[in-house]
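Practice problem 4.
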């Protein structure tokens, strides 16, 4: 097993009861929409906009990291990554992006506040759901 993958597994393993910093609080997508403002310089979750300075975040959960077609600026770390984005992993990563992946080209400071991170994750989940079919076909 690759050391990085092992590290990730350790990071998401349940920690001791009192010192548990890995459990994600309940998130609010409306608040998360505002938190996501700082990511919009580089990312959009709307499918029709696509990639920008950062890769599209449309339906990011469930995708293997660093593999989206058409995005040319992945770091070597992400190009070689072999993990799938889950809400829990994004929650942990965004606490301090450079701490988990020192080689990343994502120059973002991260979001230290656990509630804000949970809100952001809730927003990205919501933003990845397609509207009902009747809303899609309007001319
Ligand atoms: C200054 C531009 C910038 C900002 C701001 C930024 N990102 Fe990124 N993001 C990137 C780049 C560039 C990458 C590719 C990283 C790499 O390959 O190392 C990336 C990668 C990602 C990925 C992985 C995508 C994939 O296809 O694997 C996620 C998820 C992500 N960013 C979420 C966020 C969130 C959430 C925020 C706001 C807190 C944010 N980013 C802020 C530029 C940015």
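Answer key:
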């Amino acid at each position: 097993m690759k050391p990085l993958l092992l590290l990730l597994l350790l990071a998401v393993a349940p920690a001791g009861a009192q010192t548990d910093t890995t459990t994600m609080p309940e998130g609010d997508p409306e608040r998360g929409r505002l938190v996501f403002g700082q990511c919009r310089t580089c990312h959009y979750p709307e499918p029709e906009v696509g990639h920008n300075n950062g890769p599209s975040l449309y339906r990011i959960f469930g995708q293997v990291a660093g593999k989206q077609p058409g995005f040319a600026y992945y770091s070597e770390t992400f190009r070689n990554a072999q993990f799938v984005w889950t809400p829990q992993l994004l929650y942990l990563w965004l606490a301090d992006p450079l701490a988990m992946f020192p080689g990343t080209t994502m120059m973002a400071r991260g979001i230290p506040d656990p509630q804000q991170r949970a809100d952001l994750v809730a927003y990205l989940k919501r933003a990845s759901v397609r509207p009902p079919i009747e809303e899609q076909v309007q001319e």
